Design the sequence.
């Protein structure tokens, strides 16, 4: 059987024979000439020798490199429409392949232009010969030409067959001034505004190698310096003679192999025709050297004109360089002006805000001054009254006459009394007043850059909203009573509220101030209690979920130990015990992934496990009253609705979210089964579900496809909105309020979303992105309370964020203690697995992957 090599060989031979027949019919007696036609020459070089095969491989590699370079340039430059194969395309920086420029139909020949191009190529070849290098690639497809007729050498796909070690063909050398870039040589890349179409480049390039092959190379001899001189002769002919059609070009180039020149060239350009014949002599010893070519009258007679042209080109190049520099400077100036304008706007905002805050402060000071003085005076009198009485009694005991103490004597006695005791009668209060501003200021300066970014973004957002028609005042936070300023808890003006309109119209300041006060309200996380259990050495002690009951009196923990343990909060906080025992314990058949208390029925708690089962338990009776088995895989999350406590949602690895009705489950108690009310099908695993706080019909779903889906249970056909910005699996979703949703992902980020009031499709931009914790592979917990967001970290730390700022407010690292030695140790495998706020308080329950549970409080 014929292999692919033989079939290709036969097709090639038949094509060559057809070409030779066509050339013979056109040239006539050319077959009798000692120099073979191009196709016969090509056939002779196609032997199966290893040398020829190596050449073919080298050419193929060059073509592949050229395609890669073209692909890189296409990616770097602007993309346009797909160009036709035979249609010219504009190149970058107004460069064009010399082959395309030469082959323009009916090209007008300019003597000085052609001589200038030819002189540059001759100088380059002469420089190569001076270094002992045979160029080989002296052909139009190996050069590009700029708009100023500067010629540059490139490695073309059809370039010379010289060795790969040839320095000139392995890269690109500069032949003239100006900048240049690689251009596609297989495809036409120069625009030609002519009635006739340009010559097809592929056909011309296939013949170019034969046209520029010297007689001695056809005879099988290696290329020499004289071979380059022969190629210069062919190039000179192409420069000074333009063709009307492709057929005419093929005939003329075939005749050129026999040194037969067209009559038009001999009549119009006799000197150039004579030089062509001189360079194309069949015997290489008779051809001139490069020094002779450079000294020839042909190149030196119009030397003055060429020098003037060269000087004009250099002047134009310098002008273009100046224009480029000017363009760069103008662009830089524009960018800096934009920065200056932004700085001016920021300074203007700052000035206005400083005036507004100063105005608000002055009004507060006037309102609070009188009461503060009165309170301070009364507190001093109460504080000093016992001391003064004791001093009076002491002096009155030693004196017969009762006299009233002078004020200066009273002061000296007080000072003496304090110095003797070496203790301030009010040290704690004074210390708090003095130290808190300092610690807050240091924390403020530590995060100054991030606070500045938040300030600028919110301020610009407010300006854009105010610039919209009809928006005279923008209410950033609506409380039902309008925007109002309320100082932080613990300040001296807690008892007063005042309307913003009384102190200014800059309504955005109060929400920012509130957020900053919330951010600075607490300085650390304090351990209120450390839950001590008897099975700390049990390796299967990972806590997956925790939660407080309806009244926040009890909390439950559950995990891979297949148990739900319920503890009383006050007992844990107030009792100093070696081991804390749960008040109730529920045992399940499988590992528990999530638990959720019912917000209406205090003792009801739901759980989901790794076997795909959802159960509802009565913790008081320690009895299950509903078992739901419709899920096919592990269930990650369950959630009771706050507004309709009979509704329960569950999300599973099977991509399904099911809504259950607890009343139906109670009706079918004797069957121990309750069917789901409805099912939502998703394309990926479901990791988290949660009902909206004020609606039993709105449900948020966190999915493994990096998205959050918000559904209206009355219309399950499509989600009401889809939140798209996370890069990895969304592990948790929690509502911050009815219009704000928080999502956590294994891409090390937590995002805050503003939910639209109506269906809005895809939302891609979150309000805030919180970073600082580490989370790439584990479920680390998420909980929200009064604007604060708590999460765990794979660094075994608890992080607290506030909704207004992207950086952590507080953090606490769980210590790792060696159970044998009792010493602190580092264990990178441990992480925080669950967190839960105690309602709207500042107390947080946190658990690590080893079952270490702590009650933390922000102080």
Sequence:
């Amino acid at each position: 059987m014929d292999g692919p090599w033989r079939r290709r060989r036969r097709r090639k031979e038949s094509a060559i024979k057809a070409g030779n027949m066509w050339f013979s019919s056109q040239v006539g007696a050319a077959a009798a000439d000692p120099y073979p036609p191009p196709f016969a020459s090509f056939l002779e070089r196609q032997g199966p020798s290893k040398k020829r095969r190596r050449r073919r491989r080298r050419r193929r590699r060059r073509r592949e490199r050229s395609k890669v370079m073209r692909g890189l340039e296409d990616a770097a430059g602007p993309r346009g429409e797909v160009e036709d194969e035979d249609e010219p395309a504009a190149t970058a920086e107004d460069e064009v392949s010399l082959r395309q420029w030469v082959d323009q139909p009916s090209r007008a020949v300019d003597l000085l232009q052609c001589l200038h191009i030819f002189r540059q190529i001759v100088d380059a070849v002469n420089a190569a010969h001076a270094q002992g290098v045979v160029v080989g690639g002296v052909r139009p497809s190996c050069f590009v030409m700029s708009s100023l007729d500067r010629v540059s050498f490139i490695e073309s796909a059809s370039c010379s067959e010289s060795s790969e070690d040839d320095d000139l063909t392995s890269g690109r050398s500069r032949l003239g001034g100006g900048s240049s870039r690689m251009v596609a040589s297989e495809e036409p890349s120069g625009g030609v505004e002519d009635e006739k179409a340009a010559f097809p480049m592929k056909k011309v390039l296939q013949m170019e190698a034969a046209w520029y092959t010297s007689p001695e190379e056809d005879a099988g001899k290696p290329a020499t310096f004289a071979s380059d001189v022969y190629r210069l002769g062919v190039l000179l002919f192409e420069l000074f003679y333009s063709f009307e059609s492709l057929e005419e070009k093929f005939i003329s180039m075939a005749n050129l192999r026999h040194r037969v020149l067209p009559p038009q060239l001999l009549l119009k350009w006799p000197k150039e025709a004579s030089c062509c014949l001189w360079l194309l002599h069949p015997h290489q010893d008779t051809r001139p050297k490069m020094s002779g070519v450079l000294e020839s009258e042909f190149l030196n007679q119009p030397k003055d004109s060429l020098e003037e042209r060269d000087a004009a080109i250099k002047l134009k190049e310098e002008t273009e360089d100046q224009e480029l520099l000017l363009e760069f400077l103008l662009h830089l100036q524009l960018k800096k002006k934009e920065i200056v304008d932004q700085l001016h706007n920021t300074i203007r905002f700052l000035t206005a805000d400083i005036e507004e805050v100063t105005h608000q402060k002055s009004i507060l000071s006037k309102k609070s001054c009188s009461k503060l003085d009165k309170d301070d005076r009364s507190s001093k009198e109460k504080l000093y009254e016992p001391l003064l009485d004791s001093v009076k009694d002491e002096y009155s005991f030693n004196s017969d006459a009762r006299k009233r103490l002078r004020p200066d004597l009273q002061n000296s006695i007080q000072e003496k009394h304090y110095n003797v005791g070496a203790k301030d009668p009010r040290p704690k209060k004074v210390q708090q007043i003095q130290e808190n501003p300092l610690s807050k200021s240091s924390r403020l300066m530590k995060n100054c850059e991030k606070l500045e970014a938040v300030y600028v973004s919110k301020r610009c957002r407010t300006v854009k909203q105010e610039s919209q028609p009809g928006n005279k005042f923008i209410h950033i936070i609506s409380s039902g009573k309008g925007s109002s300023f309320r100082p932080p808890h613990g300040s001296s003006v807690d008892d007063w509220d005042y309307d913003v309109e009384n102190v200014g119209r800059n309504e955005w300041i109060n929400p920012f101030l509130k957020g900053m006060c919330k951010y600075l309200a607490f300085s650390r996380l304090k351990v209120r209690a450390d839950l001590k259990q008897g099975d700390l050495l049990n390796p299967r002690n990972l806590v997956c979920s925790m939660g407080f009951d309806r009244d926040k009196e009890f909390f439950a923990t559950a995990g891979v130990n297949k148990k739900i343990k319920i503890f009383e909060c006050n007992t844990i906080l107030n009792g100093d015990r070696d081991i804390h025992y749960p008040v109730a314990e529920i045992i399940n058949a499988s590992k528990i992934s999530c638990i959720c208390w019912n917000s209406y029925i205090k003792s009801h708690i739901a759980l989901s496990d790794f076997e795909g089962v959802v159960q509802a338990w009565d913790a008081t009776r320690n009895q299950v009253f509903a078992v739901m088995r419709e899920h096919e895989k592990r269930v990650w999350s369950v959630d009771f609705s706050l507004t309709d406590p009979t509704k329960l949602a569950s999300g599973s690895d099977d991509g399904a979210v099911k809504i259950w009705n607890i009343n139906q489950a109670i009706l079918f108690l004797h069957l121990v089964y309750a069917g789901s009310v409805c099912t939502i099908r998703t394309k990926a695993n479901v990791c988290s579900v949660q009902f909206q706080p004020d609606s039993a019909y709105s449900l948020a779903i966190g999915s493994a496809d990096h998205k959050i889906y918000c559904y209206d249970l009355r219309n399950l056909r499509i989600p009401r909105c889809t939140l798209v910005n996370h890069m990895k699996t969304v592990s948790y979703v929690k509502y911050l309020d009815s219009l704000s949703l928080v999502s956590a992902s294994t891409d090390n980020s937590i995002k805050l979303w503003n939910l639209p009031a109506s269906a809005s499709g895809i939302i891609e931009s979150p309000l805030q992105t919180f970073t600082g914790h580490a989370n790439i592979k584990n479920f680390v917990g998420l909980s929200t309370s009064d604007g604060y967001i708590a999460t765990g970290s794979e660094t075994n730390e608890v992080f607290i964020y506030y909704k207004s700022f992207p950086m952590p407010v507080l953090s606490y690292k769980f210590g790792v203690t060696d159970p044998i030695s009792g010493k602190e140790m580092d264990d990178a495998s441990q992480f925080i697995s669950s967190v839960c706020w105690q309602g709207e308080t500042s107390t947080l329950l946190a658990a690590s992957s080893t079952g270490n549970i702590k009650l933390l409080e922000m102080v």
Q: What stands out?
A: The CA atoms of residues 363 and 846 lie 43 Å apart.
